Amino acid sequence: MSNSFPLITAQMLTLSHFTGGIAQTNGWLLRLPDQAIAIDAPEGMSAWLSSQGIKLNALLLTHQHFDHVLDAAAIAASHACPVIAFAPYSPDLTLERLFGISAGISFSVPPFTVTDLVTESSSLDLLGTSWSVLHVPGHSPDSICFHSPAAGHLFGGDVLFRDGIGRTDFPGGSTRTLLSGIQNKILTLPDETQVHPGHGPSTTIARERLQNPFLLDD
Predict the structure, then answer these.
(1) Rounded to whole angstroms, how far apart are CA atoms 218 and 214?
(2) E strands, 1-157, where?
(3) For residue range 176-199, what is the model confidence (pLDDT) as tens digits?
(4) Which of 34, 156, 165, 185 has the greatest number of CB atoms lying within 10 Å of its CB?
(5) Could you report the per-residue pLDDT of 109-118, keeping only the tens digit for each?
(6) How would you list the strands of the sheet with 194-197, edge to edge?
(7) Are the beta carbons of 206 and 134 closer than 8 angstroms?
């Protein structure tokens, strides 16, 4: 099952998303009339982009768990676009070995090249505005969020969900590290910031600060 939903159109900026793959992972598409970027690359997203005649200027990866990057190689090849991430491609980060062993099956993520490595000090010029990078490990060592202050969007991968946070039982995971990053780097953003996660519906900083059961004090 996969779908796309127009969510926001403001000042010629349009946001939609594709949901696909075994984990029902969101891949986000943000575009102007003459530019487009994608955030994450779940299985099936490359064909979805092609079906709409969309040409990407860049692919951003929030982290490399397999469900977020299965179509990264296909998208990079089809669009000849930069691939932006925190770390070089790594089968250890994709978790393909772990999930293959646990499921008793053999599968692999098609290798891709990360053309642009970013850190928390990086500033990206995308769609005519500045984007910051927030490194928030705990779900995965390479987990980052992409924040556009001007547009009011945060693409958070599997860091923060509506009423939830990312799993921390994978290699390199840490609940304490993840919660610290959310409290110190995410919840300090403006209340109206739209949070677009790797799974499930969008939310806002204000809502999650007040209602997310993982973030409320006892």
Answers:
(1) 10
(2) 8-10, 13-20, 25-32, 35-39, 58-60, 83-85, 116-117, 123-126, 129-135, 144-148, 153-157
(3) 999 999 999 999 999 999 999 999
(4) 156
(5) 999 999 999 9
(6) 123-126, 129-135, 144-148, 153-157, 194-197, 203-204
(7) no
Strands (E), 57-197: 58-60, 83-85, 116-117, 123-126, 129-135, 144-148, 153-157, 160-161, 164-165, 194-197
CA distance 157 to 134: 11
What 3-state class would DSSP assign to 136? coil
Token pair for residue 152?
Answer: 């009011």
Rounded-to-integer distance, Cα 2 and Cα 44, Å: 8
Does domain 8-210 bear CATH number 3.60.15.10?
Answer: yes
Q: Which residues touch 26 (CB under 8 Å, ≥6 apart)?
A: 17, 18, 19, 40, 42, 196, 197, 198, 199, 200
Nearest to 68 by CA among 164, 155, 148, 175: 155
Q: How many Å apart are CA 98 and CA 57, to the nearest integer?
A: 32
